[in-house]
Amino acid sequence: MAELLQYLVTGVGIGCAYALTGSGLVVIYRVTRVVNFAQGSFAVLAALTVTTLLGAGLPHGLAEILAVLVAGLIGLLCGLVATGKPGTTPQTALIVTLGLGVLAYAVEILFWGDQPRSFAGLAGSTGGVQTHYLLIIGVTAVVLAATALLFARTDLGRALTATAADPYAARIVGIDVLRMGLLAFAVGGALGGLAGVLITPVQQVSFDSDVALVVNGFSAAILGNLTRPALTLAGGLLLGVVQALVGGYLSTSYQSEVALIFMLAVLVARAGRRGVLEAA
Amino acid sequence: MTERSERHDRVFWSSLFSSRQDGIRWWWIAGALIVSAVPLLLAPGQLTTFVLLGLSAMAVVGLSLLMGYAGQVSLGQASFTAIGAYTSGLLALHHTPPLLALLAAPIVAALAAAGVGVPILRLRGHQLAFATLALQLILLSVLGDADWAGGAVGLQGLPYLSIGGFELDADLDYAYLVLAGVLLVSLIAHRLVRSRVGRGLRALATGETAAEASGVPVGAYRLLVFAVSAAFAGLAGGIYSFFLGYLAPGSFPVLLSIEYVVMAVVGGLGSIGGALLGAALITVVVQLLTTLATQPGMPSYAPSVLSYAVYALLLIAVVLFVPKGIVPTLRRSS
């Protein structure tokens, strides 16, 4: 029983990282229609930045917050490259973000080398579970709630939502669509960065960890067709818990396949229902 | 199979092997002759690069067809290289004649593509991109865990390829084998594009509904191109296994798939010349930088940093500023 509880809590903790990564994808996709392949790189870059800041003597907390801000800034820059040139279609931007993800590899190896890194999280354990998992869950809940409020209750959020709903109409009422897209990239970058910062103490990060993160985040987000934040959260938690249970009771080697097969099943089932005519 | 599609199959296959040389420009032949002299001039280390370049080119020709004509982004094309390589490797280790093992590589890769293609090709755009990426990750993970495939260590001690008692044991032999492979693949791709299938695919690219309404069997053609592109990658994988003599899941990382995409996009999607140029350009640039980066005094991480940077910057620059790719853009402006 204690074992089951432990698997559930660690699963929810890991699932929070997927949900954050997926939410970043959703924020960017809703506003710009771009699927951001570099989403996993934000997490890796933020986590590696934390190791440097901690090494430079900054206290915990400050280092993590700074790293998330850095990730937001990197997100903004990615958005600028991917969508800044007028006439760039979402398909083109997808390939550009793929290139940005590879560029991140070069930057990461240049500054941090190619060995996995980690840093200490919240020490100790509560009820047989590492306390850090509870921190992950708490921070994710607060941040996702705040993001939901940002979108629903502020003028800025409404402008973002308007751009997501109909870019043309948004432009007519005086919303700068490009700027909204960049803002979405910055928010997406910060959410991705937060995922990396939160998860690194319990899971080492190396330059190529981004593939697993972006694939899991995409799997979480695809449940809500890349547009529904609540379903993305549910998808992330589901994936995390199922992976933890599979890893705990069956074998750790099948863990990663679970998310992948889940994603393929959702995609294919949805494509079958929708028919062949609707282009993605 | 209906009578109509049978007739159309006959037309397609006969056009593939007919002696009519229309459309094959003389400079293709001249280019092939010049390139075939290149291996003789290369140093041993450069020969290895030449062979790897040719193998990439084979896979990229297929990917370029798939992306340019069928409009499908595949981020898992290296899975078919892996399937081809493991097919050849496993068969050769189990005492199949090497030539048969090599021939099985493209066939098994095409069958695998046809199998996964039926559900997967219903997806479009980013969904297909993630789905193909996911399939490659699953394949790598399965190969890494499978005892019959040697697990993470992979297959070792593969024999050399031998054709009728002649053993291909020198790099030069493989250089010419690869050259023949590239020629074969380009010829098939060229014929495919010029055939009824190619016209159907072009119609498909401009308007799916219109193409379907005009009687183009959209799904079947997509699947055909997917299988053909997989066969090309599989053949490259088969030659790779005999050339290097060992295989591991790590030989076919996701980055290899991305490398293929970069080569195809830089050269120009849907253009065979573009695929060949893209493969050659990227391989040569990365090789030059690697040589530079392994000079004494350079840090140990320099080669990987430089090659990642080259892939990334070339991909981004071409996509944004030369969206059609190098070869189609040059052809249009000349």
Overview of the structural elements:
The complex is a heterodimer of chains A (280) and B (334). With 280 residues, chain A is an all-alpha fold. Chain A has one domain (2-274). Chain A has 11 helices and 2 strands. Chain A has helices at 2-32, 39-55, 62-83, 90-112, 131-153, 155-165, 167-172, 177-199, 210-222, 229-250, 255-274, and strands at residues 125-126, 129-130. Chain A has a two-stranded antiparallel ribbon with strand order 1-2. The N and C termini of chain A lie far apart (44 Å). Mean pLDDT of chain A is 87; it is low at 275-280. With 334 residues, chain B is mainly alpha-helical. Chain B has a domain at 43-253. Chain B has 14 helices and 2 strands, in the order H-H-H-H-H-H-E-E-H-H-H-H-H-H-H-H. Chain B has helices at 3-17, 26-41, 44-68, 77-93, 98-120, 125-145, 171-194, 196-206, 208-213, 218-244, 254-267, 272-293, 302-321, 326-333; strands at 161-163, 166-168. Chain B has a two-stranded antiparallel ribbon. In chain B, strand 1 (161-163) and strand 2 form a beta hairpin. In chain B, helix 3 crosses helix 11 (254-267), helix 5 packs antiparallel against helix 10 (218-244) and helix 11 (254-267) packs across helix 12. Chain A binds chain B through residues 35, 81, 85, 88, 91-92, 94-96, 98-103, 105-106, 109-110, 113-114, 211, 215, 218, 222, 253, 256-257, 260-261, 263-264, 267-268, 271-272, 276-277, 279-280, and chain B through 73, 75, 119-120, 122-127, 129-131, 133-135, 137-138, 141-142, 144-145, 208-209, 218-219, 254-255, 258, 261-262, 265, 301, 304-306, 308-309, 311-313, 315-316, 319-320, 323.
